[in-house]
Amino acid sequence: MKILCTFVLILCLAASALADFPFKKKEQEFTTHVPADVANTLRSGTAVQRNDLARELGIFAPNPSSTAVISNSPCVTFHHVEERPVTLHAGSENVVLLADSTECDSIYIVVFDKAPKSEWRHVQTVRLASRSQRPEVKFVELIQSGMSEIVVHHETSRDSGSVQQENFVVLKMLHDRMEVVLDTTERSELTLANRSAAETDNLQQSQTSTFELLKAAPKSAAIFRIFEKQVLTDNKTTITRYQVWTWDPELERFRASPIDGGDVRPAPPAKKPAAKTHAATPKPGDKPATPPTKPEQK
């Protein structure tokens, strides 16, 4: 009897220790058979359905007190939701939901990957700020034919009154995760107060960049290169500089190389020379061609 009581006591103590062990059970990943049903729920589901789904997909509103602190408040109001079937990595089928919410000042990129048993597995949710400027999201084959990257224009990174900045961002599926492989300034404005009482104008610095996708040169590893033209203004001085972003397969990132602003486009293929026309061989009985007569000189 004493041995049995001792054994029960040991089991109780072990269970109590396991209950306080500082690890928790891994959360189950979200899967669905129809991604369109997920989009429809975000559009027109009940408040409870949208709340539960937003928590499952990691769709959270920004923290109003600090952008560095992750919010746990789900975003449940969307004025536009669309579905995009794409291929984000080799041998895959993907569906990307773009959920736009003015109430949360955000656009959410929700990525699904085709899994076995006709299921779609939620891979990741990426939030883009869209308070002062709505980002423009595109799907472009930048690196390998048949696979798309997510290209974002005007992604707001700073908006504090005197400092405003929007970035050009490229997202790529790497190792089963969406990774930022290019993040650079697209537009920025910085306003500083007068440096002395004699100066009446504030000091202003700005940068505006435009990006153009270029076909890479023959036998290049990249299908496209990204050509950037920067216009930098410091008060009343303006300079222009250029650089080309090229994919580096070892770093798995785009790297910039400054250029002098010359023609960075690959040379067009050489045209074949036109076939030469030969004079027809005169047939028997034909009159010889009469040479042109020179004008009479006076």
Q: What low-confidence regions span 5 or more consecutive residues with pLDDT below 50?
A: 16-26
Number of strand segments: 13
Q: Rough shape?
A: flat
Structural class: mainly beta
| Order of neighbouring strands in the sheet with most strands | 6-7-8-9-10-11-12-13
- Terminus-to-terminus distance: 146 Å
Number of domains: 2
Note the main sheet: 8 strands, antiparallel
Give the C-alpha Rg: 32 Å
> SSE order in H/E notation?
HEHHEEEEEEEEEEEE
Query: Helix amount, in percent?
Result: 10-25%
Number of helical segments with 4 or more residues = 3
Tell me what portion of residues adopts beta-strand conformation. Answer: 35-45%
Mean pLDDT: 82
